[in-house]
């Protein structure tokens, strides 16, 4: 089996994830006019919530993912209303907002480490198995679906 197609697919997936995060940072900056350092940590919080529901409570993987996304959105909204909105009302500078977001980042990261430990967590025992597709390389279900979504988006 040729490894080049596999590397290309893995690169497309990794690049798509990085592009998604870059667009989300850009969206947050465009709406709030400050670089929110806690944005990535809020996304990680959603991942850990999905992990908790799926791995610890044994819920459905897709329901857990949806709950993780909703939890991250709710947490971001709460941070905005409790921390950032009062600062915006006081017309705080971008530097003050940045320092506040670093504080939120540090506090949330510490809470995640307290509740979920700082050890590597994995969903390796999920029932998603490698599949061989006719295009000539192995591809996980999620990778295949991301590839199909990209293909659909490009009009293919």
Which features would summarize this protein structure in a list?
two-stranded antiparallel ribbon; mainly alpha; globular; 5 helices; 72% helix; 156 residues
Give a verbal description of the structure:
The protein is 72% helix and 3% strand. It has 5 helices and 2 strands. A two-stranded antiparallel ribbon has the order 1-2. It is globular and about 55 Å long. About 3% of the residues have low confidence.
Question: What is the gist of this entry?
Answer:
Strands 1-2 form a two-stranded antiparallel sheet. By secondary structure, the chain is mainly alpha-helical.
* Strand ordering within the main sheet: 1-2
The number of helical segments is 5
What Rg, in angstroms, do the CA atoms define? 19 Å
Task: Specify the overall morphology.
Answer: globular
**Average pLDDT level:** 82
Share of helical residues: over 70%
SSE blueprint:
Elements: H1 4-32, H2 39-56, H3 61-89, H4 94-116, E1 131-132, E2 138-139, H5 141-153
Antiparallel strand pairs: 1-2
Helix pairs in contact: 2-3, 2-4, 3-4
């Amino acid at each position: 089996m040729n490894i080049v197609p596999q590397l290309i697919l893995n690169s497309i997936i990794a690049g798509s994830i990085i592009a998604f995060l870059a667009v989300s940072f850009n969206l947050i900056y465009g709406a709030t006019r400050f670089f929110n350092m806690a944005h990535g940590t809020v996304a990680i919080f959603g991942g850990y919530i999905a992990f908790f529901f799926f791995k610890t409570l044994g819920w459905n993987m897709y329901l857990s993912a949806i709950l993780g996304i909703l939890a991250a959105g709710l947490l971001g909204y709460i941070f905005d209303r409790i921390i950032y909105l009062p600062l915006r009302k006081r017309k705080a500078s971008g530097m003050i907002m940045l320092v506040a977001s670093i504080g939120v980042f540090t506090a949330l990261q510490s809470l995640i480490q307290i509740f979920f430990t700082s050890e590597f967590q994995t969903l390796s025992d999920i029932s998603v198995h490698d599949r061989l597709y006719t295009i000539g390389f192995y591809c996980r279900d999620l990778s295949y679906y991301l590839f199909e979504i990209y293909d659909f988006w490009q009009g293919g």
